[in-house]
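[Meeting: bench + compute handoff]

Bench side (C.D.) handed over the final construct sequence. Compute side (W.E.) agreed to return the predicted structure before the next meeting so the bench team could plan truncations. Sequence as handed over:
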Amino acid sequence: MVSIRTMTEVYWPQVAEIYREGIETGNATFETIVPMYDKWNATHVQECRIVAFIGEETIAGWAALSPVSSRCVYVGVAEVSVYVGEKYRRQNIGQLLLNALIETSEKKGYWMLQSSVFEENVASVAIHLKCGFRTVGFRERIGRDKYGKWHNTLLLERRSAKIGLD
């Protein structure tokens, strides 16, 4: 049984471990190390952070939003992060997290979500597409991972059908 909860600092050790696993794949992020909680906390939207629990004690994945800009015109636009623990992948947890994050984001007034996904991360691309994102761009050799390998990314976005329509 999977339950979605609001992420709090007390969950950080398990969240950080899942983040580390994502970094180690080489196809999830350009980050090379897991930041300390204070740094991560300062760069992610407080009201849009969730975790997926298996049972009462085990976090299987997490999702959060980061602002795309400090300019007021972009206050309703955010970047998505979704990470699933290695042993819980291919169990629909990523899609559950992303759908829950979309719902939370709309309640908080976000009208546009975007995600930059490594081209070879086909599972992440598929999850985003299933959750209503569309591919709007391709960035060739945008950066190198911790192993020095160049990656292309796809820019995906999802426009809310509930928020920002006026």
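W.E. noted at the follow-up: The chain is about 25% helix and 35% strand. C.D. will use this when planning the next construct.
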